[in-house]
Specification:
The protein is mainly alpha-helical. 79% of the residues lie in helices and 0% in strands. It is globular and about 55 Å long.
Length: 202
């Protein structure tokens, strides 16, 4: 999933979900269902992904599972954002960030910062500074934790935000860094967009 190879990931996770629904290792249902829901988000099918993510949250709560819940909330934020429900996405995203910090899940905190940073850029396109601060915080944390796929995404989005703010120098730097890292990691699903954005800057 992190590489963007959606068909390969779906071929693994859809049968895995059926196994958990059949009663095999139900404790894994929240992790598998939420991951599959995020895959549907990435595949442009948020209406299919969101019910799975919400069911994952309900089952995690019923089993009193706390670890990883913040990341499931991040994926729910993504689903609402993809559906254009930005106010709902904002509420869920802030909850995800607070939960990650409360439980000291620094990796999940980084994903939450990245996600609500992207959301901030959409909520108020005229004010890109809040988005830039959030994405920069996510990038710093991702770099500290050696989360290279997330760092690649952060570079690209930070570059897009700086381009929207007419800061061409920083936009070019970050888009180039992001495109290079995406290429190195084989994350081709997102690389073409990053390179196209960089090309538009001249």
């Amino acid at each position: 999933m992190r590489k963007g190879d959606l068909s390969a990931a779906l071929a693994i996770l859809e049968p895995a979900l059926e196994m958990t629904r059949a009663g095999h290792s139900p404790v894994w249902f929240p992790r598998i269902a939420s991951l599959l829901g995020e895959l549907y988000n990435l595949a442009g099918r948020p209406d299919q992904g969101r019910p799975l993510i919400e069911e994952a949250l309900e089952r995690a709560s019923a089993m009193h599972l706390v670890s990883g819940r913040s990341l499931i909330l991040v994926w729910l934020t993504e689903s609402w954002m993809a559906a254009g429900e930005l106010e709902r996405a904002q509420d869920v995203g802030e909850h995800a960030l607070g939960l990650a910090r409360e439980h000291k899940e620094r990796g999940h905190e980084a994903w939450a910062l990245y996600t609500i940073g992207r959301l901030a850029a959409r909520v108020d396109p005229s004010d890109q500074e809040k988005a830039a601060r959030l994405i920069d915080d996510a990038l710093r944390l991702a770099t500290d934790l050696r989360m290279r796929p997330l760092a690649a995404h952060c570079h690209v989005v930070f570059g897009q935000v700086r381009a929207a703010a007419k800061d061409q120098l920083n936009a070019k730097h970050h888009l180039a860094a992001g495109a290079d890292l995406l290429r190195e990691l084989g994350m081709d699903l997102w690389r073409a967009e990053a390179e196209a954005d960089l090309g538009r800057l001249g």
